[in-house]
Each structure stands twice: as structure tokens, then as C-alpha cells.
């Protein structure tokens, strides 16, 4: 077996993903019923066992809605969510079983923790709901706290959220997920509210959980630097759809989509030269542009490079399509990128 296959986070390409979105769409109808916002507009995405996938993009691009759909918190209008190859059912008993094995960690641990509950109660609550038993409860709570980096765990049992630092509160929130021994964690901006010194500690914790316990994770973030430091694969989302996906090295070291290039250009460590400032705001999801949905803001189209490549009209009129969910190869939804790669070399 190759060293690459033995590396932490490596997955068998033939194995069924632990969690997957298949042609997923989530739409919200306005109060008047006259407009429909396509928050998630046809997404294929897979998370393999022991793999960390970063879902990146601007605020409002549909990342959090997609994450909640994967957890069964939002019901899709089309497509399906699959856990271990089996379609997610929406009856209470079916959802309860999946939510025990796929846990959510929220951005703001302060809001996620009940200020009247001790740390012990906060961590034990999920297990009580899902198991209906308190047998060996203290042992499981202590183990979850220890795995989340709060040691000795007994020292934290009777403390309240206001007595903890921001990093400790986030660790308690993670322990509340770990106590159920899940297979996947969906972490929505898990370090956005933390100081820089604490962010690294939480990211190292997620990496240890992957390496030591085989835990898979979907990390939702707007921060490409975070994705570079933690993820095995990255999926870049724009206006409800994944527009580029591949390994972190493929997507962040050699981006192909103009949107990914623009996001990376503002990172000092990326060495991308002058930052690319995208024109305007992302379009209204109730009025998604025709053609490539990024074309009204695309610097490649605006500069004339798409015209020179002979694809400008296609950018304005032809949808580049939906990317497949497999992580086997890098993919990009961009006419210009495909035209460049089709050019003869030498």
C-alpha cells in the first residue's frame, strides 16, 4: 500500500462516502409566494470516512443552508442527502438515529450553551436524549471532555459557561458532540468568534480527532487560510452551487476558477500579488443570472480574457453545469478554465 493511502485523512476512492449531498436543492419561498430563493441550487458533495472537507465561500452563498440540509435540519426541495449510501429519512425516529452519528458544532459556543446548565449537564444532555439512559454517564462525559482537551475533566463538571474562556466554551460544545461518538462532525465557522491564539488550538483538536479516532468533518468557513491548515479537500461555493472542488493543494495552490482566485488574492500568505476586488455584491438568489452565475462579477470576463479565449458569449448564456460529488479529481465549473486547459501546449 502506498504512503499516500496510509496518510491521515486519506480515503478509499471506491468506498461509499459517510455523508453526501446528491443533486441537492433547497429553496425558500417569500411571504407573498411570488419569489423563490434558491439557497442551494444543485450540489453534489461527498465526505469520506476520516476526511476533513472545507466548504468555503462568501457570506450568503448557501454554505450554512447546505450544512443544515446535510443534518436534516432543512428539508431539500430536490435531490437527497445520503448517510452511508442510504437516503436520509425525515421521520423523527430516522432523523434521531442519523443525528446521533452526524453532529453539529456551531460558530458561537456562548449561544449554543445554556447559561443555567453546568458543563456536565451541557455535555450529558445529548446522550440522555439519544440513549434515554444515565448508565455510565459520568464516564462518557469525562471521556468526551478529555478528548476535547479539557483535562482533568472532573475539574470542569460543575463550572458554568460564563466561568470559561471562549476556547474552553468551544471545547465544551465539541465535547457535547463527541459524547455521542459520532462518525461525522459538521462545524459551522467553528473558530470565527475566537482569538487567533485559540483558533490554532481548536484546529489542532479537530485534526487530532481525525487522526486518532477517524472522525470525518465538514468545516464550513469563509476563511481559505483555515481551509488550507485543516482540510484534505476543499469545495468552493458561490450563489448556491459548488464551482470548484478538489484536494486543498489543487484548489488553493493552483486555483482554476476566477472566483477562487479572487478569494485567495486577499490572503497575504497566498502571494497572489494585488488583491482582486470583485465588483458589486453576490446577486439576489431569487434572480440568479443566466449563463455562468458568476459572470456579472467575473474579472476574467471584464478584462476581455474570456473574449480572447472565445468563450465570452458562453459565459453570458450557457450554464457551465453542476460538479459531481466525487473527490477523485479536481473539477471546476468555468468555461474560461476549460478553454485554457484545452489549448495545445508547446
From TrEMBL:
Keywords: ATP-binding, Nucleotide-binding, Transport. The keyword Ribosomal protein does not apply. Residues 21-264 form the ABC transporter domain. Coiled coil: none annotated. InterPro entries: AAA+_ATPase, ABC_transp_ATP-bind, ABC_transporter-like_ATP-bd, ABC_transporter-like_CS, Oligopep_ABC_C, P-loop_NTPase. It comes from the Bacteria. The keyword Transport applies. PROSITE patterns: ABC_TRANSPORTER_1, ABC_TRANSPORTER_2. SMART domains: AAA. GO terms for molecular function: ATP binding. Belongs to the ABC transporter superfamily. PANTHER family: D,D-DIPEPTIDE TRANSPORT ATP-BINDING PROTEIN DDPF-RELATED, TRANSPORT ATP-BINDING PROTEIN. This is ABC transporter ATP-binding protein. It comes from Streptomonospora wellingtoniae.
